[in-house]
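Posted in: Protein Modeling Q&A

I'm a second-year student putting together a small comparison for a lab meeting, and my supervisor asked me to include a predicted structure for Chaperone protein HtpG. I've never done this before, so apologies if this is the wrong subforum. The sequence is pasted below exactly as I got it from our records. If anyone can share the structure token output, I'd also love a short note on what stands out.
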Amino acid sequence: MQKGAIRVQTENIFPIIKKFLYSDHEIFIRELVSNAVDATQKLKTLASVGEFKGELGELAITVKLDKGKKTLTISDNGIGMTAEEVDKYINQVAFSGAEEFLDKYKGQNEGTNIIGHFGLGFYSSFMVSNVVEIITQSHKDAPAVRWECDGSPEYTLEETTREAGRGTDIIMHINEESEEFLDEHRIKTILEKFCKFLPVPVKYEDNQINNTHPAWTKKPSELTTEDYQNFYKELYPFSEPPLFWIHLNVDYPFNLTGILYFPKINKSYEIQKDKISLYSNQVFVTDEVKDIVPEFLMLLHGVIDSPDIPLNVSRSYLQGDPNVKKISSYITKKVADKLDEMFRNDRKGFEEKWESIGLFAKYGMMTDDKFREKGNKFLILEDVDASKFYTLDEYKQETAAIQTNKEEKQVILYATNPVQQDSYITAAKAKGYKVVKLDSLVDAAFLNQMETHWEKVQFTRVDADIADNLIDKDENTTHVLTEDQETRLKALFEKIPQQHVKVELKGLSAASQPVIVTRPEFMRRMKDMAAVGGSGMSWYANMPDEINMTVNANHPIYQQILKEGNDQLQEKQIRNLADLALLSQNLLTGADLTAFVTRSVELMGEKSN
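Accepted answer (user: helix_wrangler)
Welcome! Here is the predicted structure, written out as tokens:
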């Protein structure tokens, strides 16, 4: 038996490892299973080049739990180690790496996920163990050996026998603080998280827990639509089928494979982010990919696998790494190209998916200049009747003659709620205007940004003013009322308790509403953005609504009201007309709404009398 002290200057490195890495303690399973995969893959490589001539047999990794002995064992039948290799790789190399790590990161935040990237992979086992044993037999003609260490610098190394022959067992005697790792379900959950797609079979409780050939490792030409959909079900068993997907496959200037799925997004916008998983050679790394995937694509689902993403560095360095920036740019380009291809090849299918696609497209156009340049070609605007879609150029062509204002800006009229804004839409359409629907969460911010990027384009919500003023301010106030009637009508409206309400009499079409309430475009838009959490805009949400109340003096109802001899009845009727207009804009609430209902009942009674 060989006894010795691990060659490291730090008197006892294990407590430091445990303390530094404690928040990621479950990761020891990933590291040890990954090491077993490496040992297996190395043996296959040696066999393929003729350096190993023995029988490979069924290559697999086995995870066994023994609650009675309080042990967790990870076994493989891979390359194995000789006594000399154990001494070299366990007693020397790993600890030199550990020292380097401690020197470099001493004093930094605990919990940094760097295990395995400085030769610490095997030693993560001591985070949860009192004693760790290695029983290993090399593929070479050499006896099996047993190594044991209790977490101090002292170890033993002796010859032994390994019944299973070639391969390695890592036997962890779980400590009291880590008895959660003696729970079958806990181990199964961790294996499914970290090892679900490893390239070597991983068995636990007699069941293989991994798919060794996931879809992203295959060529697109080898996969059918059903294959892609089945893989999506494997990733997200309870989700609706995806709309479509993009297969990533590039080997220069970096290695990257993966599949990104566009999920179906419903009206409730119950969107789940962090649904993209990052792998490195089929080993799960993280589902926090915001440094690698552009922010606007964080709503996508799927898998990215790249061995070129530097995992042994801090996140701040990761953000600045050239490969990370290249990968992010590549993914953006692939998504833009895919959307452009879908639009050109199957516009009808593209339009049918626009409710979900539009969210990604608009978000991308707001946050990425190159994506916006491509997006200008496939961005579509849906008519409020849901009967037609326009590209920006198509909308411009159809509306240039009547929706260009005095400043020579093309006015895009839009509605956020076609049902609620129906009367305004009807009035706009009566003038020949085209009204589109912009009702997603990002639209308030989207149209603000596009106005700065699209030349001579202005967005105006259809209820931002009376129809006559939507394109250019119409100063015509001609109406049929006499001077005396106009004075009396103004006086009646002035009796209405008003806050932040501006009343104006105008001569509109007799078919238009008697009172039209609008809110100025700029202030309403700012409040809309603040309502969905616009950065730095929360103070807008608390500002009072600015209200323009346009009285259509040509509506015949005023002739009728002004004939009434009862002043009190006139005031009630005028107040009700104003309240109806406010109600149409969801601006009548609380006590005012209650008063409106009560007054309406009273008016009906008075009329019947």
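A couple of things worth pointing out for your meeting: The CA atoms of residues 100 and 118 lie 8 Å apart. Residues 105-119, 312-316 have pLDDT under 50 and may be disordered.
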